[in-house]
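retry 2 of 3: previous attempt timed out while embedding adenosine-5'-diphosphate. Reduced batch size to 1 and resubmitted. Inputs unchanged:
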Amino acid sequence: MKPKVSRAVYPGSFDPVTYGHLDIVARALRIFDEIIVAVAHNEEKHPVFTVPERVEMLKEATREMAGVTVDDFDGLAVAYVRQKKAHVLIRGLRAVSDFEYEFQMALTNRQFDKEVETLFMMPSQEYSFLSSKLIKEAAALRGDVSSFVPPFVAKLLTQKLVRS
Ligand code: ADP
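retry 2 succeeded.
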């Protein structure tokens, strides 16, 4: 019999992808055969990068990670998980700040679909205070973000955010 392939979806804004996100993807690959990193269309957050730009950045950043695909989705994350024939939604959990919001969201998602489980994963300590928001703020002030994002992302951040 063919072995069953396990698949999980990692949804988020990824505006832009950071080493924290990539750390979570790498950890999730130790549990699942396939990870679908899915960029949410969420204009309320006023993203700096468009959805296609974020998808391209994620593809480049995960190019050497076998088992990762990148996609984008509209609407409820749980509905997207089902559409992809998966049952697990991965979220990263950083220092205390994420807990309340993530807890609420996981329980709300469970109301929407009881068959989808949210799995929280903790990044390496060095990334547990890292956020895309902070990186954007630092890059706009010409701060060096090279230890937080891949070099090509740092370059794109400078192009977008630093006025010459
Ligand atoms: P969202 O708008 O969905 O929160 P983000 O791109 O900010 O999108 O985050 C996507 C997921 O990745 C969330 O579960 C978030 O907690 C997690 N995450 C973000 N930054 C990090 C990090 N530095 N380490 C671990 N997880 C992270």
